[in-house]
């Protein structure tokens, strides 16, 4: 694969963008912090999830943001189930 | 007097079982904790949100009471009670039918564009004043459902003495805030948001049943107490 993976946004209503590792890292870290994980642990878990997602994206020219989220949730589930629950459901609270 | 206060308290309990404000408080807290906000600041935000909800509830109950007092004086006609009963029955069935969406999580009946807007506002809220405004708007957002208990409470309030009216409005506001106060205390006590949200999701059907059932029970009671009894009395039945 030559360039970064393109992320297609929900419903195609917003412009697509290149995969941004730091954005994913920040969201995973925030989910871990929301369930009162210590900062260091949250950062380590976010690193591990980002590594797994980056490996999964390898050789994929484009994926939807929904698929990216699903993969990140599944990976986070193995590290921190409670954070994964919040990460998965945060759009379904209201 | 006791029965009037009991009706107000019951209407406020039904109000407390509606979940938009609780959802928004949960989201607000989640984003604040996730953004490494200090605990004292988190408490300031959630307290401001609570104050916003309390003030708007107070305004809504006071406004509807004033409106009804201007319209009916102290003697509410049975027709107004009958219309209120219709509202209670209709909203009770509506709560049972579509208060929660049929999907995972605790998604409410709100159009998705509005839900996304509220979620984005909760995420963007950093100042106490913004949290206060969010509290105000969360009550406004759920007006369509809280209209029924507020209407009953207001119709009862206008029959009371002025001092008791103040007590009634305060009682309604405090009881309607109970669910928010519990969530606020849990967050302040350091409980995990995932547990709070899981509890809400696990029990959402019960909360939906309780809210809808409460509206129907209140409607039935008011219908018997204010419409049938008043009509029978007018015809010399009692």
Strand content of chain A: 5-15%
Order of helices and strands of chain B: HHHHHHHHHHH
Number of strands of chain B: 0
Strand content of chain B: under 5%
The backbone outline of chain A, from C-alpha atoms, is globular
The end-to-end distance of chain A, rounded to whole angstroms, is 39 Å
Order of helices and strands of chain A: EEHHEHH
- The computed structural class of chain B is mainly alpha
Q: What's the N-to-C terminus distance of chain B? A: 21 Å
- Provide the helix percentage of chain B: over 70%
Radius of gyration of chain B: 19 Å
Biggest β-sheet: strands ordered side by side in the sheet of chain A: 2-1-3
- How many helix segments of chain B? 11
Largest sheet data of chain A:
3 strands, mixed
Helical content class of chain A: 55-70%
Low-pLDDT segments, ≥5 res of chain A? none
Number of helices of chain A: 4
Shape of chain B: globular
Unreliable parts of chain B? none
Largest interface: A-B, 18 and 29 residues
- What is the subunit arrangement here? heterodimer
């Amino acid at each position: 694969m030559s360039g970064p993976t393109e992320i297609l946004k929900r419903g195609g209503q917003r412009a697509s963008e290149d995969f941004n590792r730091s954005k994913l890292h920040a969201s995973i870290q925030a989910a871990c912090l929301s369930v009162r994980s210590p900062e260091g642990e949250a950062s380590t878990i976010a690193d591990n999830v980002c590594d797994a997602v980056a490996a999964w994206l390898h050789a994929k020219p484009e994926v939807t943001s929904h698929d990216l989220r699903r993969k990140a949730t599944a990976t986070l589930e193995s590290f921190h189930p409670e954070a994964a629950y919040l990460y998965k459901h945060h759009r379904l609270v209201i | 007097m006791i029965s009037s206060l009991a009706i107000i308290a019951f209407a406020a309990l039904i109000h407390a079982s509606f979940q938009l404000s609780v959802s928004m408080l949960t989201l607000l807290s989640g984003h604040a904790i996730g953004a490494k906000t200090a605990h004292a600041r988190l408490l300031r935000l959630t307290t401001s949100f609570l104050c916003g909800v309390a003030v708007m509830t107070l305004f809504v109950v006071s406004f509807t009471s004033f409106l009804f007092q201007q319209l009916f004086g102290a003697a509410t006609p049975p027709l107004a009670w009958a219309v209120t009963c219709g509202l209670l029955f209709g909203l009770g069935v509506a709560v049972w039918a579509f208060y929660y969406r049929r999907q995972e999580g605790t998604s409410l009946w709100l159009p998705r564009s509005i839900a996304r807007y509220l979620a984005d506002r909760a995420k963007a809220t950093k100042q106490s004043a913004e949290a206060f405004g969010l509290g105000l708007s969360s009550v406004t957002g759920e007006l369509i459902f809280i209209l029924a208990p507020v209407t009953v409470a207001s119709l009862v309030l206008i029959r009371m003495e002025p001092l008791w009216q103040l007590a009634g409005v305060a009682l309604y506001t405090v009881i309607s805030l109970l669910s928010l106060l519990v969530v606020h205390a849990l967050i302040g006590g350091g409980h995990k948001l995932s547990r709070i949200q899981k509890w809400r999701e696990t029990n959402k059907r019960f909360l939906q049943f309780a809210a809808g059932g409460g509206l129907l029970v209140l409607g039935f009671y008011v219908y018997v107490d204010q419409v049938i009894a008043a009509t029978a009395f007018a015809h010399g039945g009692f």
